[in-house]
Each structure stands twice: as C-alpha cells, then as structure tokens.
What does this fold into?
Amino acid sequence: MIRSGTDAWNTLPTLRRRFFARFGLGAAIALAVVLATSLFLADALAARWAGRALLQDLEDGLYQTMPGGMGMRRMRGMGGTLMLTSDTVRAYESVWPDARRVRNSEAAYGSGRVPWTRELVAWAARRQQDEDGAVQVVWTRLSAVRAAAAGAYSLVTAATVVSFAVGAFVTDIGVKKVAEAVREAANTSRRMAEGDFAARMSVGDTRELAELSVAANHMAESLDRTLTQLRSQNEELAGLERMQREFVADASHELRAPLTAMAITLDAAADGLMSEEETADAWDVLRLEVRRLSRTVAELLDLSRIESGREPLQVSSIDVGNVIENVYQWYQSLPGVLPSFEIEVHSPEGRPLTALADGDALHRCLTNFVDNAIRATLPTGRISIWARSQDDGRIELGVTDTGEGMTPEEVSRAWERFSRSERARANGSAGSGLGLAIVHALVTAMGGEVGLESEAGRGTTAWIRLRSAGNDVQLGSTS
It folds into this structure.
C-alpha cells in the first residue's frame, strides 16, 4: 500500500541522517588511514630521533667499549655497545643493509634490524681514529623508544580523533544550514501553492543558499504578478461577459418591441381588420419604425467598427474653434423652437485652440451632446458649446445645458449601450441609447477622455479632453 503526504514523508530519513549514513563509513575509514599514517610517521620520527641522540652521546664519549679490545657490552633495559672491526663490518654487508654506509662514513645512525640482536633497534656508529679503522656501535631497543614516546603517540591519536570530531561537528552545522534552507524553501513553496505569494525566503549566508533564496523569491514575485494579471484579465473577461449579456438583453428589448408592433400592424392590414384611414396611418408609423430600426442597426455597426479598430480615424491637428462654429451654425439653421445657443472659445493670446483629433468624429461627438441637451432642455433654456485650454496643456471642450439633469445612477450608466433614462423611455423621446457609447468609443480611439457632470434639476455638462497639438501630454485618470 502506497502512503502519501506527511505519513510517507515521515518514513524518509532526514538530510543529516542520510548524509552521515552515506559518508560515515568513509569518514571512519579515512580516520583509520590518517591515524595509522600519523602513528607510522610518529614512530619513524621517534626512531630517527633516538638514533641521532645515540650518535650525539657517542660523540660526547658517553659510551665506552669493554677493556681489552673488540667485544659487546649490553646496557640494562636499553641495548648495548660494541666495537666492530673493519673486516666485521664488511662481513655484515650481506645481512645488514646499512653496513656499507657505516664502513664508508665517519658517523652514521639509523633504525631497523641488526645482525647482533633479534630485536628492532635504533643505532648509531662512529669510526675510531686508529689504524684498524674500527667502528664503535651503540644501540637501543625500539620497544624502549616507543615506550618512552607513548605520550607523544597518545597525543597524535587524540589530536587526529579530535580533528575529525571537529570536522564532523562543523560538517553537521553546514548540513543543518542546508537542511534548514531546503525546509524553508519547501515551506515557502507550500505557502505559494496555497495562494500566499507574499511568502519569501531569507537570503542565505553562502552563494548557493543565496541563489536558492533569490530564485525562490523571484518565483514568488513572478507568480504574484502573473496571478494579479490573471485576476485582472478574469475581471475584464467577466465585465465583458456581463456587458455582452446586457447588450443582448438590451438589443433584444429595443428591437423586439418595434418588430412586434410592425408584425401586428401588418397582420391586421393583411386580414382587413383596419379601415383605409387606419391603414394609411399605419403605413406612416411603419415607415418611422423602419427608419428607427435602420438607424439603430447602423449605430450598432458603427460602434462595433469603432471598438474593433475597423473604423479608421484621421487624427491630426485641428482647430477646435472651427468645429464648434460649424456645430453652432448647423443648429442655428434648423427650423422649430429650440433653446438659445451660445459658444465660448477661450483661446490664449488669441491663438486658435488646436487639438489632436479627427474633425468628423469630433463633430459627431458634439452633435450627440447637443441633441441630448435639446431633448433635456425647455425652449426657454440655454445651451452653451465651449472650449478652453487646461493648465496641463490639454484641450477641453463640451456642451452645458440648463435642462432637467440626471441622477447619479443615470450618470454612472450613461456610457453603456442602450442606456436611456426612465423619463426618456416614458416620454417616448427619440434615441436608441447608443449615442454616448459611440462618443466614448470615438474619444477613446482619438486618445482622449470623456465625462459627464450632472445634477437632477440643475442641468448637465458633457466634456471631452484631447491632447493639444503643441503639447503631446500623457493622459491619465480624471478625478
């Protein structure tokens, strides 16, 4: 049975246990090799030191041979001394490797086996100043040397073991740090998996741990940015989906009612249920409804082309005052009773107000503002078309009326498709509710901003802000 999660992890060894399990045997072998090598070198150095000491004592005359000539005298517990003739030394060359060196030199010392004893010894030899060339040899047992150097051997052993223990302790500290860093990285990853992208690792005190920390923190920041972007995109998609549903609902509502009325009227006329006078009136109503539906469909197509970028705009430097003058002249030429019109163009130092815009699109926007102002304003009211330069270099223009105004809810929904006030729907006033949506799309395509300021019973101001042809400023949100 396969276990998962924490239960499975608990059966796994820790990093420290795995490390010492893997490298403990190797460390023990290394300790044994180093300890053996250290003791061997210490033994060799002790034997060498003993030989040199014997030679020094020999040169100082501390050892004397037996009276009466050649022979050997043993010293209690240590070794002995003897006098070897030149012929004896030559005879020893076959069994004593150092015999030739002893015969050919004034003084020599060494360690190992010698012909006159079965034990390993440290020895020293010195040629006598006589005609026979006799050699005086003195030796001591290596077991005695080792017994005398037992403290040194113990010190070497202790130093070697302690050095390995210190190394293991330092290694354990390093493994602990690595294990803590890995555990912190795992905890950070777990928190990020749970959605906490504010989790961060502390930067380690080594290059590798620092790189691990930086990489984990960079991943957290990257995931946080990506998630924020995805959330923003999801919100945009949700908004677009909501607008699509509202658009379909509003379009269905706007088109269903006139189509239903036209179908009923046509059926009644075809069935002979209407008099000739009623039929003539019905044809007039049908023509008006067809024109309204055609205008609504045309505006929908225009809005779709503008928002998708398929409606090319010729953005260039234009004189805003000329556009306002043309709009003013157009409404002045219309028959009927209209509110009084006035224009206000505040140009600095008498220079024209030039903005980056499409002249036809700007004319269409102002016309829509004025149409809305006429529908909301009594004939005794006043409508002003104005333009001025702002402190930040942008050009602001718009339409202000003294009409019935709008509620805050109507202002917030004014730029949506098919958005019409309840009063306009109840009065049956003309308009599809697409005009301001088209204005918003046109101004956005020209790189400008658009807004409404209104209060019920106090009139409305619709404004547009455009980049100045002489000051290409960066547009931002307007409070």
Summary: The mean pLDDT is 79.
